[in-house]
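User: Could you go from structure to sequence for me? I need the amino acid at each position, not a summary. Structure tokens:
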């Protein structure tokens, strides 16, 4: 996987994780509000069941007091105002402070649309709907990130010059006196998907395992060296080239491999 594909994969994983985390946090924040509103609604319902006529009686009592005050004000100003004025104008002139307080209170109240919105949103059914929507967003974020990764895997093509193990012929030379070490290393080569070539013994002893390569095959040699545990890589010499029987890559098993 190249650097660009790796970065895209990390970005998709991070985006999915952030969306899921945001949805979970939103759900956690909504749950206390939901239970609080539910508890308050239960209290209101219980209070209304115990005293169902209280709001109506309170409103009627307030209207009675207001009407009585208006009548008293009319009696006090009857002598100074011989020409009666309409009720609305009389209330405005006789109670300027009340009018001013009413106007100021109305100005401080939230906008009717916002008030209706808050009232609806804080209802239990809307809180439940918001919680469900948060969960759906979390699931959608996880599913979307997985789908994006699958599409990237399908569309991703091998890089130019990438090594295909099945196209690489590898010869193995035993650089020790340990019998069967070459065959053992050859099994490791085949297990990693490479084409195993000649397996024989080289006369010069080697303490360390290394990988040699023909001209233009360094990338393949480094791939073999990495799969064998990160052994050194160097250009091929004439002796190894003669024993490799045309293989592009040669593995020389050293004494360090005999102990594994």
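Assistant: Here is the amino acid at each position, in order:
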């Amino acid at each position: 996987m190249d650097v660009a594909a790796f970065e895209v994969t990390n970005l998709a994983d991070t985006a999915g994780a952030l969306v899921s985390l945001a949805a979970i946090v939103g759900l956690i924040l909504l749950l206390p509000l939901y239970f609080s509103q539910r508890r308050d609604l239960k209290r209101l319902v219980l209070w209304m069941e115990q005293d169902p006529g209280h709001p109506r009686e309170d409103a009627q009592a307030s209207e009675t007091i207001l009407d009585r005050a208006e009548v008293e004000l009319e009696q006090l100003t009857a002598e100074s105002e011989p020409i009666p004025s309409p009720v609305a104008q009389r209330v405005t002139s006789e109670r300027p402070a009340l009018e001013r307080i009413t106007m100021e209170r109305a100005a401080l109240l939230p906008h009717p649309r916002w008030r209706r919105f808050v009232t609806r949103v804080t209802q239990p059914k809307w809180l439940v709907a918001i919680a469900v929507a948060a969960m759906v967003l979390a699931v959608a974020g996880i599913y979307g990130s997985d789908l994006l990764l699958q599409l990237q895997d399908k569309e991703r093509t091998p890089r130019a010059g990438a090594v295909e193990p099945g196209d690489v012929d590898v010869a193995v030379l035993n650089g020790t006196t340990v019998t069967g070490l070459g065959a053992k290393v050859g099994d490791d080569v085949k297990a990693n998907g490479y084409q195993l070539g000649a397996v024989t013994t080289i006369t010069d002893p080697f303490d360390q395992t290394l990988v040699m390569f023909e001209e233009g095959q360094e990338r393949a040699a480094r791939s073999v060296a990495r799969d064998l545990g990160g052994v050194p890589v160097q250009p091929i010499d004439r002796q190894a080239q003669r024993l490799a029987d045309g293989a592009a890559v040669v593995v020389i098993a050293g004494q360090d491999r005999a102990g594994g």
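One structural detail worth keeping in mind: Residues 200 and 243 are 7 Å apart (CA to CA).
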